[in-house]
Amino acid sequence: MGRIIVEVMPKPEILDPQGKAVGSALPRLGITSFASVRQGKCFHLTVDGPVTEELLADARKAAEEVLSNPIIEDVVRVEALDEGEATK
């Protein structure tokens, strides 16, 4: 069984209130290492068998047409997870 990961982020010019809220909370927890936080979405797509180029193409199409809103979001990653990552 294979897995494909799809990451979607708000476009840079789009406000990210959830990321801003997390960014404001971190210093209150003593975590001051980060200059900013942006929050996006992550999808794990499971396939029967190994991940092929055709399956990655289908995942890219799904990412562009269903998993993201192209007006306000960018698809930033579509790739197969290696077996070590897939078990985490």
Automatic annotation (TrEMBL):
Compartments it resides in: Cytoplasm
Root EC class: ligase
GO CC annotation terms, alphabetical: cytoplasm
Broad class of where this protein is predominantly found: cytoplasm
Domain of life according to the entry: Bacteria
Pfam families reported for this sequence: PurS
A GO MF label: ATP binding
Pathway of action: Purine metabolism; IMP biosynthesis via de novo pathway; 5-amino-1-(5-phospho-D-ribosyl)imidazole from N(2)-formyl-N(1)-(5-phospho-D-ribosyl)glycinamide: step 1/2
Record field: catalytic activity: N(2)-formyl-N(1)-(5-phospho-beta-D-ribosyl)glycinamide + L-glutamine + ATP + H2O = 2-formamido-N(1)-(5-O-phospho-beta-D-ribosyl)acetamidine + L-glutamate + ADP + phosphate + H(+)
Keywords assigned: ATP-binding, Cytoplasm, Ligase, Nucleotide-binding, Purine biosynthesis
InterPro entries: PurS, PurS-like_sf
EC number from the UniProt entry: 6.3.5.3
GO biological process: 'de novo' IMP biosynthetic process
Record HAMAP family: PurS
NCBIfam families: phosphoribosylformylglycinamidine synthase subunit PurS (TIGR00302)
Quaternary structure (record): Part of the FGAM synthase complex composed of 1 PurL, 1 PurQ and 2 PurS subunits.
Annotated function: Part of the phosphoribosylformylglycinamidine synthase complex involved in the purines biosynthetic pathway. Catalyzes the ATP-dependent conversion of formylglycinamide ribonucleotide (FGAR) and glutamine to yield formylglycinamidine ribonucleotide (FGAM) and glutamate. The FGAM synthase complex is composed of three subunits. PurQ produces an ammonia molecule by converting glutamine to glutamate. PurL transfers the ammonia molecule to FGAR to form FGAM in an ATP-dependent manner.
Family: Belongs to the PurS family.
Full protein name: Phosphoribosylformylglycinamidine synthase subunit PurS
Lineage per the UniProt record: Bacteria, Bacillati, Actinomycetota, Actinomycetes, Actinomycetales
